[in-house]
Design brief:
By secondary structure, this protein is α/β, with parallel strands linked by helices. It has ten helices and seven strands.
Amino acid sequence: MTEPIPLHVDIKGRGFPILCLHGHPGSARSMSVFTDHLSSRFRTFAPDLRGYGKSTYKGRFEMEDHIKDLTNLLDTYELNKCLLLGWSLGGILALELILSDPQRFQGMILIASAARPLGNHPPVTNSDLLLTAMAGIINFFAPANSWNIEILGKRSLLRYLFGQHNQSAYTYLHQHGTPAYLKTFPNANAALSRALSKGYDRLAVLDRITVPCLVMAGQDDRHITSYSSQETAGRLPQCQWICYPDTAHLFPWEIPSQVLKDLDAWLDSSFTGLHDH
């Protein structure tokens, strides 16, 4: 492992802090579906993880280095109490943070993530890769084009990321998904691959996390199945579980209004008046 590095971080709003952690590939910008909304009453911190976005790093590193970087970020901004929100890989990092320092965090939100992440993604073919590249390029220049969605998007690997191939999903993909993919460095890909080869299972220690938790999943997620997310929710002592039908791994981009409405309701019921402090 290496020494912690300073991370680029997007900070928005005022109020009680929420640390928002992106997935792979991802960036602080890809969390804007949450931070743009939450920053109206909270102070949101969305870092680019090491090897992603503007947090450039040229050497080899491991997943554990993300935890050191994030702890350093929390210390730098004197965030001694905050909420955690993590999407996919970001959810796994959120779990590791709260397990390493449970007194620091008041609550946790896991989005399409799990303590024992299981996938059922079919093998990727050359045709999948070609169609995905074509769909991505066209969506970059002609966002949410209906022809591209129907002819290429639904036949590409995007069929496993989206359950609903709507304009919202493809607009977010254009604005944040494709740029994040292009700014994910090879060493970040390598670090994740090494971590996946070792397996990951923290189910046995979830009873240590006693703060209010919310776990959200897309029913048709093939990257981290809704079953594995529900398994995590069932092991957390104080947890609400929500599963959205006809959605997949990127469901916050498919149905943002519903996700944010449910997130607000959970925050209001679990942390009355917290955003006023």
